[in-house]
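Deliverable D5.2: sample structural annotation.
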Amino acid sequence: MSEEVSTKLGFIRETISQTEVGGVRLRGIDWFAWATGGASNTVLLTAETGVAELLVTGQDAWVLTDEIEAQRLKDEELPSHLKLHINPWADAAAREAFVREATDGGIVISDRCNNATPQEQSIPHSLQQHKRVLLPTELDRYRHVGQQASAAMTEVLQAAQPTWTEYQLAGAGAEALWARGLHPALTLVAGERRLPLYRHATPTGEKIGRQAMLVFCARGYGLYANLTRFVCFGSLTDDEAQLHRYVCEIEAKALSASQPGMTLDAVYYALAQAYEQHGFPHAIREHHQGGTTGYLAREIVANPTTTDFLTENMAIAWNPSLTGAKVEDTFVILKDGKLENLTFDQNFPSVEVEGRLRPVPLEK
């Protein structure tokens, strides 16, 4: 078993000991990937839970799944030495009986509590925090995901044509991510007409026209690379270019504030102040501003009441926006508070803003 998986089982067993429960049961796609060192229990991309779960007790760890999935998971996904408990697909009760036996009928901590089972309790903050702070091997995988996602984005926007529909642009984005082994968990597109109207623009059959925004939440090894880019067929107007400059300057305040020991609400207020200083005092209410990321597209979305602390080796993705302009990349907070941009692509146009290279629209 890898050192990473052993470390995480240690975190889980520490929780079991501290809370005096019978075990920990992890059903979610996010928690399963975290605990297994990047394995996937995903079949249905839109589901929050997968086709297998992990049960950990003080002595053992099992992957619980059914006869449909077991062999594929064993061959292609799971780290070695994790035990499998396989139940008939039509007999969910068999799995529940096994869990009761393995945990001596005790209380079980779970990431997705079953409301019909009073013996289940939510995951404590201490274990949540372990999931949100990256180990070196996780960071290595995250770098790969970020590089592949940004390369896919660049490839698609370089190929895009104004006659493409938003569906076509989103589909090309999804295809480029799949080709690199990444799940297209989210592909948002807004073309020329819809770009000023909607912050969360799900794609339609409209032609994109003169310009478009493409947003990715790309998942690999359970980790999310979040990024936003623009393409313009022709040149931006002075007003358009200024808006893109403004969002980068606003984002710079959030990035500079993203230091170990800083709380998320403090970063939110830094963004609010930056919007106001640029003459857009209400813009912060028009879209969420991002927050921490990792095994969820956003682990915690920053707002005025989120007092969670940022730490070293935590990933962040801020996405300030104005009407028709937005900026977003996925960063990790390194030692001494330095930020590493996991989704930077030197082949995409950028400008320097407060010492960091930030993307600008690709003008074609």
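Annotation notes: The longest strand covers residues 211-220. The longest helix spans residues 136-159.
The annotation will be released with the project's public dataset once the embargo ends.
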